[in-house]
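Q: Got a minute? One more chain.
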Amino acid sequence: MPTLTAAFTMRHLSALRAAAAAPMRRFASSLGAGHQVVFQQYGSPSRVLRVEEAAAPGKPKDSEVVVRMLAAPINPADLNIVEGTYPQLPSQLPAVGGTEGVGVVVDVGAGVKGLAEGDWVVPAKAPFGTWRSYAVCSASDVSKVASDIPIEYAATLSVNPCTALRLLSDFADLKEGDVIVQNGANSAAGLAVVQMAAARGIHTVNIVRDRPDLDDEISKIKGLGGTIAVSDKYAATSAMQRLVADLPAAKLGLNCVGGRAATEVARLLGEGGALVTYGGMSRRPVTIPTSALIFKNISLHGFWLARWLSEHSAADSAAMRATVEGMVRDGKLKSWIERHPLAKFDRALARTNEPYRSHKVLLTMDDGSAKQ
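A: Always. Here it is, folded:
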């Protein structure tokens, strides 16, 4: 199975870039038919999602653009949308799946300003429907991004890295030498937190669910600059307090799991520390020790990137993405990604649902993706 890792192969990158850089006149004059992943009703993704052929897009209206999608990940929220359990749902069904990805503008309406053929763009709002070959949308529905970073990074920078950036910026005044603690540390967002914190000289205490390849995951986290990395079983023992004894008390705790995993993060917070929940992978309620609330006066917060985007300007969002792009460009942010062609979505979905997966699944829409 072709895999995009931190050491993304030049052959794969060249193929994707070639697809993105194909002459714009070819697309504008005769855009071919494509594929899209559609659901007619809410339900189990494996049951309701279907790959369909899609007609070639027509000419855009005055305020519209035609976007040829290049790559798009399968994120947990995408599957929650298909299930009908996510707060943001399509305005109507049938709908195209996917909320994150990158595409190239191949045609623009006469009234569009600020976008041109050849620009790379990402969705400005969700749900957008990124699991397709082409999208015709209002120019305001997409935002321009840098085209000098690898496509697989551009396709995945809008959710997890931006979430990590906000978590480290919005809930505690973190300075060099400070400490944060997080569970789910080997998730895409968790790994971004490790790297962004390390770049700022912030220590990270990282908790990972016990798994067969635990040693590999711990080595990965430490290799990215993580200060301490342990299993959730170890974090629940008295030895954990001794392990962190030489570090300052944590100012910030990040929880994407819930249940007992959140408890262990809260126990490691110092006086006045903040615990931020941004996910609930265990689907269990957040459990907080009473002593942490009374004697340490910790505060509890929630974070949802969609709300942040709705409450901030397009310029704020662009500045956030630019920060992430700069880290990618400088080699300070790495991702572990595996690629699958769009037309073989069933295989990609099955891979997404496999336990102990360590790579983000990315759909690619290059010319070969529509061939079985």
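A: Confidence is low (pLDDT under 50) at residues 1-12, 22-29, 367-372.
Q: Perfect, thanks.
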